[in-house]
Protein 1
Amino acid sequence: MKNTLALNQKNLVEIEDRISVPTFDRSVLKAGIIHIGVGGFHRAHQAVYTHKLLEQSNSQKWGICGVGLREGDTKMAEVFKQQDNLYTLMVKHPNGKTASQIIGSIIDFKLGFNNPEAVIELMAHSDTKIVSLTITEGGYNFNPVTGNFDFENPDIQHELKFPDEPKTIYGFLTAALKKRRDAKLPPFTIMSCDNIEHNGDMARNMLLSFVKKQDAHLASWIESEVCFPNSMVDRITPVTTKAAITYLEKTHEIKDEWPVTCEPFMQWIVEDKFSNGRPEFEKVGVQFVSDVKPYEKMKLRLLNAGHSVLGILGAVQGFQTINECMEDDIFVTCLRRFMDKEATPILDEVKGIDLKSYKDSLEERFANPTIKDSLSRICSESAAKLPKFLIPTIHENLAIHGNIEFATLVIAAWCYYSDKGIDKNGQSIEIVDAMRSELHQAAKKTKTDPLAFIKQESLFGNLVKNERFTTLYTAMLRQIYEDQNIKKHMVNLL
Ligand code: CS2
């Protein structure tokens, strides 16, 4: 009987007999990449590509230093400290097999909220070539209707007043870029890896709006010198469960406080524009293109929107996971109809991709029974996600007299879900959303004003003015409120 080994650098020599460990020398790596927002997704995606590249003997020595700007990142900092920034990647295959390995590309982790100076220094250091971001859709601080930077945010107001006390990504980037410019260092690239169409352009526009208020000269330097590649990122990464931690302990006798689980599929398409060099990621399967927009749109409007369609309808139906939805033929058919009839017609031509097989593969990935991606993860922050994933599809279809039935049913179900917070069996649904109370307040008015929910302009724009939409929406809403039988109303659309 072996003994359980805590995951850390010293124990790697023994862990090697159990699962694969980094074969490269971590001590010589430099933090060429500073990554803000180290959650499951980054650890299953960019950090894995970086690890794979480091595994190649002739590779450059790019390591990653993780940064958490919020107090909520403290736990990650503690775990990383205890484990010498190592963690286990557990890839879950549809046949039930789990392939586990230790990832070693992250070499340091810093918290920004309690020591902003250290993070600014790090970003301003000449070794830093790229600052990459997974700060979620909500992290970009834009007004979804106007698309403009939200100067009302108290954190933004604070950092504009006190540039030495940054709070959001914008304060940190500005302070660090200023230092680099003053030190005559080349800037770093800002690489957004969030699920937002034109994520690089978004990061650029928002940062420039912020900097212009503070320092017009710096803004023009950023405008001409800093690259913001757009990218499309993809790997389904459910929330880490206790079961994953126990599995590692039982099966491999490794104690990892926070492993990451994910599907086998991974994809990363990036525009090849970098201010200060980049790792040779093409050697490990990353695709570099000159324009990533059609790929981004395809992914967000099919995969992410597809997730939300299953997530919202599934939550009201009382399902818990995406694969549970995919075990129900009605859900599978509705998902496909939504993708074929509503999302596909508004996509641009996507070079080299056969949309039919892309959609087939999405169905397979969603159905993977080992992933157990929770609907609570999918539905969390819907107020930030749906205006990116689903609502634009309705607007674009209305403009071309296209189909809107399934997307509209999702919005009606979202209203019901935000109002009642229960599924059709009366079980409560935990709603995680920065706009939770606004959503609830608006949805609650539905009884007296059926259009109250979609009057939230910051989410829906002027959708409430479109009669074709409102007629369909109110009819669907009435039905859901009457009998809560979401599946019946899905069947009605087939
Ligand atoms: C999901 C995404 O958060 C969501 O709503 O759709 O996290 C999705 O799993 C990833 O983008 C897959 O690449």
Protein 2
Amino acid sequence: MKAICVHKFGGPEVLKYEEVPNPMPGLNQVLIRARAIGVNPVETYLRSGSNPKLPLPNTPGKDCAGEVLAIGNAVANCQIGDRVYTSDTVTGSYAEFVLCEAADVHLLPEKISFPQGAALNVPYGTAYRALFQRAQGKAGETVLVHGASGGVGTAAVQLARAAGLTVIGTVGTAKGAELAKQSGAHFVFDHTKPDYLADIMMATHGHGVDIILEMLSNVNLGKDLTIAAMNGRIIVIGSRGKVEIDARDAMKRDVDIRGMMLANSSEKEKTAIHAGILAGLENGTLNPVISQQFPLAEAAKAHEAVLKSGAYGKIILLP
Ligand code: NAP
């Protein structure tokens, strides 16, 4: 089969399109023919060497959607031919065939396309965990999705809107603003404008924001503390460097700063995440938006694209 292989850490050029042996499923494993593969920013960090202990060579990626090709004898949650999406893999998702543990394979409703299926796990899983498991978001609260035009942000807007929160999104482009509105944001502001924090405070009638889902904490955390409501919760989803904050801003309104990693989810939390995603897909409140699709062989271009500003939903590879 063809797969992307990383033999040494470095820039996008280290993503090599190569012939590798087809994997075979063990007792509790599932082999999937990938039809679409999700590209997430974390794969660019790992490719660059953010985790020097990561074994080389490796095939990047956790997210794909496709059909079940073969299953081990002990697999009970899917059958050959089922449409599925993944939440982790054994062999990496940037490949034609993807080997997974059965627990990381989830049925994909008929009405959801394979590219949309490949956009579920990291974006929607992260948004769900941030909003409901870390922030304990409830109907009637206000949430600021700070970065509402990308994969996690659009997912968070859709999840929050469906759950009855008032949703404020920020974006960096007019196109991104349209997407955030279509996804369900009640208010959208431009995070490149100097006065957008004042606009957010006005939108909350001076109350402040109950929950902030933060995609770029190294830029925004200090400012977030100044617009949080009493007992506000700031969820650190993304951060690309250090940040200085005035801790007194957290004291003033009993604000919590809560970090999160999707990979830290317990088995029980993972079950809740994927049940929540499935329910939203079935009732039509969740609708992944695909911005760009690249052939698998052009994974390097996808890695360049996913780090550019002007996000518009999700970037996908097609094997
Ligand atoms: P993405 O699709 O590339 O989206 C990035 C988002 O950040 C866009 O909405 C972008 O808006 C926004 N952004 C850019 N500048 C910003 C600023 N100054 N303030 C606020 N937002 C800004 O990436 P993604 O997949 O949604 O991931 C978002 C972040 O979360 C990444 O850093 C990723 O590594 C991280 N992440 C963490 C976890 C976890 O487990 N903790 C899981 C998934 C992702 P414009 O382009 O419109 O400016």
